[in-house]
Amino acid sequence: MADLTSFGVPTDSGSSIVMPKLQYRFRVKMINFGLEASSNDFTQNVISVTRPSLTHDEITIDAYNSRAYVAGKHTWEPITITLRDDINNNVNRHVAAQLQKQLNHGLQSAPATASQYKFGILVEQLDGAQPATVIETWSMNGCFVQNVNYGENNYATSDVMQITLQIRFDAADIHNSELNSDGEQGALTNGTLGAAPILSGLGSNALRG
Fold this sequence. Notes:
Blueprint: E1 26-31, H1 40-43, E2 46-49, E3 53-62, E4 67-77, E5 79-84, H2 90-102, E6 119-126, E7 134-149, E8 162-168, E9 171-176
Antiparallel strand pairs: 1-6, 2-5, 3-4, 5-8, 6-7, 7-8, 7-9
């Protein structure tokens, strides 16, 4: 086995290279989205998903000879999910059902409350094994489809048809689990990864409708 202990940046604890998370080892799970009955169709056709991005407003406090800055209200930026439009129209049906929940375009009728159409998203980082171990979980809460793009038909390409969703959400949590020296996942606590989320939006994996 190759000795990687001398290839990292020297620190007080040594210089071993730490294995990074890989972008392609992930899965996306939807909760209360679209048809609800089978979210596996959605999960198996995901091409890519962006991770959450958080921005704080800047508040300026003017003083005697200078200025100071403090954090104001925050905004979670929308995420983007790109999907293959499968030949059986399973993904298309899920998206159409979710859009119908948000607004009945034929009757021009909308739900009385947002809880009737909002859904949750889990983006799970995997270790690459079979069966896979989840090493990190992002949970997005209070989600709705803000924009959907059905792509284009084009005689000049062999690309697959894609559906791109822009998802607006209220808040997000991130849970990490540590792997031991054998690559095994640490113990689950209360059904979540670790005793508490590293970054908490609406509480521990609270997928709000």
